[in-house]
Amino acid sequence: MSLLHICCNLAGSTVFPQLFEALAAQGISQQVFVPEKRPEDMGKNLPRGVPTHCALTVKKSDALLFFRKAQRSVPEIERTVDLSGVTLVHAHTLFTDGSIAHALCRRHGLPYIVTLRYSDIEAIWRYEPHLHPLGRRILRDAAGIVCLSEGARARVREMCIPPKEREAFDRKAHVIPNGIDPAWLTGAPRTSLPQTVRVGFAGLMNGRKRPLDALDAVHRADDLALGRRFVLRACGSGALEERLSEQLREGDCCVGRVQGMQAMKAFYAGCDVLLVPSTAETFGMVYLEAMSQGVPVLYTRGQGFDGQFPEGEVGYPVKAGDVAGQAQRLIEVCEGYAERSARCVAHAKDYAWPIVAGKWKTLYDAII
């Protein structure tokens, strides 16, 4: 087996190099092609031990004429990559990477699979309907389609797939979640819950992540709960950081941007529950990180993390925008806290990258 990954988002995410390195540990031969738009991103986040080719083949104007990305990228791939040994192409986004994989399939007969992410569906598909025909062609001709959760798979089926093509979609659509670095898996279950419950929020301070809703939900829970206090402990930066800071009560805090695994572990150590009520998530790594440290989670209903576990197992789904419902769930998640914390630590281990990479290898083998 020899894979060619098309990955336009390599520079901006640690998920991809971790995935590629975990696949290499499974004995899979790989190469990565990165169609870049910004010169300053060239060479960032390169996976160790995996040949990676970066090329400036994307321009701002391609947002309107998407096919140009493939027109520039395919000749560059043909020049820098030995395609004679490639058995499968993996496109890591639907439009940018998928259009390149689709063109390679037409020119060289290479089968491809495509992973769909938040930006594919909630941004590009929703707001750029002129790209629907391209997206449907890519999905129709793909040998496999992968979503990060059951909720995302259901949403793709409803939004993107014509009714007459849904049976074919069901046969080739798979769910494989993101993984977590095994170095996270050092957390221990919490044995008790303090009287003052520290509710964590971790993420960008923007409209999609809804930090102000999290703060409001914490304050409502604090007003409703008998014999227990709720305070917010937030980290992150963005346009809403100042507004959030202005609304903090006594006991609340915002520590600003936190970077690095050890710093984030220290942040979660100071939290008892995590609430990130985003309007949309591809997966939501912060939930998995918090779980690894024994912190139960409240995650957005119908979005990336929802459906990974039965309701109540590691926390609860909450409806984006329903602050009153989020406050009630904050109170409920405190019941049976020690047992739920233990389940969080145990289940996080199932998402270690070696295990997730094994799922990818099984899918690659089946398709080839």
How would you portray this structure in words?
With 368 residues, the chain is α/β, with parallel strands linked by helices. It is built from 14 helices and 13 strands. The protein has helices spanning 15-25, 67-80, 96-108, 118-127, 132-141, 150-160, 166-172, 211-224, 241-246, 261-269, 285-292, 323-332, 337-348, 353-367; strands at 2-6, 29-36, 52-56, 88-91, 112-115, 144-147, 173-175, 196-202, 229-235, 253-254, 273-275, 297-300, 315-318. Helix 8 packs across helix 12. The protein is elongated and about 70 Å long. The model has no long low-confidence stretch (mean pLDDT 93).
Structural class call reads: alpha/beta
CATH architecture of the largest domain: 3-Layer(aba) Sandwich
The biggest beta sheet reads: 7 strands, parallel
* CATH homology group of the largest domain: Glycogen Phosphorylase B
Over the alpha carbons, how many angstroms does the gyration radius reach?
21 Å
Treating each run of at least 4 consecutive H or I residues as one helix, how many helices? 14
For the termini, the CA-CA separation is 8 Å
Could you give the count of β-strands? 13
Shape category: elongated
Query: What fold name goes in the CATH topology slot of the largest domain?
Result: Rossmann fold
In order across it, which strands form the biggest sheet? Answer: 3-2-1-4-5-6-7
Q: Please tell me the overall pLDDT.
A: 93
CATH class of the largest domain: Alpha Beta
Question: Which sequence of SSEs, written as H and E, runs from N to C?
Answer: EHEEHEHEHHEHHEEHEHEHEHEEHHH
Number of domains: 2
| Strand coverage percent | 15-25%
Uncertain residue segments: none
Oligomer: single chain
Helix content: 40-55%
